[in-house]
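lol forgot to send this yesterday, sorry. struct tokens for the thing we talked abt
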């Protein structure tokens, strides 16, 4: 009876030891990566591939469904809205109009409103140039006519204009000189007034002290 009891205690101790080991191993395997590895080992490659394809089908089904659909009224309304906006702003798009250096087809975008403004600016500039050239030509013809009619008067007029210019420049210089002289006189007068005020103030102070 004692032998049986000892064997029972021994088996119980071994069982407890194995349980503690199993708990330690289970705690070490607690994680998503470890669980995935164990599921691969248990299920095998075929089942794992099937599950992967199932998830891919679930994710890609909406995309394939959208690709198989035809255009809805909303798509046509959106395209019409975009085309109206382009037309209002003078934008023209010619799809697949030309090929680039690589050989890929590109769209040709024409901005009619911008082209119109550039064209107007160019034409206005050209007209201004033509008018300036015409005015210079007419002035030259008029001066030539004056010379042909009376050369002496034309030369005298030039001399008179030169004298007037010299006279006006001399008058300007005289005005500047007179202005400077008047400014200096005003400054001297202000200094004299200030000195007189100071002298008067000192005399008043002496009178009060006396």
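and heres what i got for the seq, position by position
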């Amino acid at each position: 009876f004692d032998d049986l009891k000892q064997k029972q205690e021994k088996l119980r101790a071994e069982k407890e030891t194995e349980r503690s080991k199993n708990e330690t191993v289970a705690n070490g395997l607690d994680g998503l990566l470890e669980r995935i590895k164990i599921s691969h080992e248990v299920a095998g490659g075929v089942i794992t591939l099937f599950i992967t394809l199932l998830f891919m089908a679930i994710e890609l089904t909406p995309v394939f469904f959208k690709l198989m659909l035809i255009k809805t009224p909303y798509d046509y309304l959106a395209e019409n809205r975009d085309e109206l906006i382009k037309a209002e702003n003078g934008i023209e798009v010619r799809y697949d109009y030309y090929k680039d250096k690589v050989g890929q087809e590109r769209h040709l975008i024409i901005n009619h409103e911008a082209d119109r403004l550039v064209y107007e600016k160019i034409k206005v500039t050209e007209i201004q140039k033509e008018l300036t050239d015409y005015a210079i030509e007419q002035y030259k013809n008029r001066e030539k006519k004056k010379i042909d009619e009376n050369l002496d008067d034309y030369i005298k007029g030039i001399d008179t204009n030169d004298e007037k210019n010299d006279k006006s420049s001399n008058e300007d210089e005289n005005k500047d000189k007179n202005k400077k002289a008047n400014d200096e006189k005003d400054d001297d007068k202000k200094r004299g007034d200030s000195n007189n005020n100071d002298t008067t103030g000192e005399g008043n102070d002496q009178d009060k002290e006396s």
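The radius of gyration is 54 Å. anyway ping me if u want another try
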